[in-house]
Amino acid sequence: MPNPLKPSKNAVIYSMVDGEPYVGIPPTKPVTVPVRLYARDSVTEAPTFELEKVGERTYLISANGYKTQDQDGLLVGSIEGEAQRWYIEYAEHHDAYLITKENERGVGWIAPADNNEGQIRIGNLIMGPSFPPFYPSIQLFRFRYPPE
């Protein structure tokens, strides 16, 4: 069953690495904060993001006023600067999504492979030579929405 993507004010994003940790922003309030994974058993409520559709498969992703951005190869949330435009592509074989830069489709979100609580990196994505293409779980994300 496909995991449908849709604009939302409170989408839950989670990684496909072991344990399927949530993507979230710390509750601190500096200007820039890391966007990182949170083990499911470490939070009482799943962090949520606002997905604003700005083009075909292109979204702005923010949380609590923090706009997600690539900052020196790390995914951060910032109250300053422009929001990064993210191209979100469905990988049907995995029933999950790749989240890439709008104008650099080979560069996108990469979850830490060694634990469920590290910061998400922005880097070159790997695609396995198969049809349909194979992607490592560290590059795959799913979205969940509250009941309507």
Describe this structure in a few short sentences.
The chain is mainly beta. 0% of the residues lie in helices and 46% in strands.
Roughly what percent helix?
under 10%
Query: How many β-strands, per DSSP?
Result: 13
* Rg calculated over all Cα atoms: 14 Å
Q: Mind telling me which CATH architecture this is?
A: Trefoil
Structure class: mainly beta
Tell me the domain tally: 1
Could you list the spans in which at least 5 consecutive residues all have pLDDT below 50?
A: none
- Name the overall outline: globular
What would the average pLDDT be, to the nearest integer? Answer: 88
The major pleated sheet works out as: 11 strands, antiparallel
CATH class category: Mainly Beta
Distance separating the two termini: 19 Å
What is the CATH topology assignment?
Trefoil (Acidic Fibroblast Growth Factor, subunit A)
Tally of alpha and pi helices: 0
GO molecular function, one term: serine-type endopeptidase inhibitor activity
InterPro entries: Inhibitor_I66
Describe the structure in your own words.
It is a single chain. The model has no long low-confidence stretch (mean pLDDT 88). A hairpin with a 2-residue loop joins strand 6 (58-63) and strand 7. It contains no helices and 13 strands. Strands 1, 3, 5, 6, 7, 8, 9, 10, 11, 12 and 13 form an eleven-stranded antiparallel beta sheet that branches. Strands 2-4 form a two-stranded antiparallel sheet. It has a single domain (8-144), classed as Trefoil (Acidic Fibroblast Growth Factor, subunit A). It has strands at 8-15, 22-24, 32-34, 36-38, 49-55, 58-63, 66-71, 74-78, 86-91, 96-101, 104-110, 121-124, 141-144. The protein is mostly beta strands and 148 residues long. 0% of the residues lie in helices and 46% in strands.
